């Protein structure tokens, strides 16, 4: 693991006159190249903070080095990642990872003061949906990859983190798996709400996937990538291997459409500048109350 600052205590504290908000980034990319980590760290580094506040973030390599943070952080952001989100007996990191999620939920339920805030992205979203039995996690018929319209669903119109995005809104979708058939009984038990679903596809007989859930008052997740920005996507799309793969599987027209969307401020730029920043503001406002 590595940290951006050398702060002696892992507890939120005053450091050189500033209130430190400690963020744990849970890296689930399994040592594979990605743009997600850069996107998350860029959002944290550029987030507008009052002069008396400061983020200190530490990266934990969950899958490759089996690093798991303690409960000594204020905010946890868990990334996307490659491979299957289904149970794997050889994944030695899974049990400690799920233990952390359970501990955070229990901490928040039992605390009348300070809470822990969590954002789950794509692979992490699928894992936690499986762990909490909130829906069925299945393999898609074909890979979802691109910049797609998505729709707010019921409580998504009331969700604070979705207030600045449109309906439909656009986001980067990159996955071979999906969460479908939400279990409304389990959702109600936890107090969870479905926030978004994937675009309607009238030409195929497949159920629309759940794309966002408010798990608890402090925990939210998306099956898309709200951290993705135009710069990162452009670097990805211009890689010769990725360009060849996209054109081969989706066609040149789809590839050109994706490049065009990168320049549209109402597309992924709006999503990237809205959802995670709103989540961070929620956590910051809470932290200041109990500072």
Question: Topology of this protein?
Answer:
Blueprint: E1 2-3, E2 14-15, E3 18-27, H1 36-46, E4 53-61, E5 75-78, H2 94-110, E6 117-121, H3 123-131, E7 136-152, E8 169-180, H4 184-190, E9 193-198, E10 210-214, E11 219-222, H5 230-238, H6 240-250, H7 252-261, H8 265-289
What does the model show?
This protein has about 290 residues and is α/β, with parallel strands linked by helices. Helix content is about 35%, strand content about 25%. It is built from 8 helices and 11 strands. The chain has helices at about 35-45, 95-110, 125-130, 185-190, 230-240, 240-250, 250-260, 265-290, and strands spanning about 1-5, 15, 20-25, 55-60, 75-80, 115-120, 135-150, 170-180, 195-200, 210-215, 220. Strands 1, 2, 3, 4, 5, 6, 7, 8, 9, 10 and 11 form an 11-stranded mixed sheet that branches. It is globular. Residues about 5-10 have low confidence and may be disordered.
Fill in the keyword field for this structure.
single chain; 291 residues; alpha/beta; eleven-stranded mixed beta sheet; 8 helices; 34% helix; globular
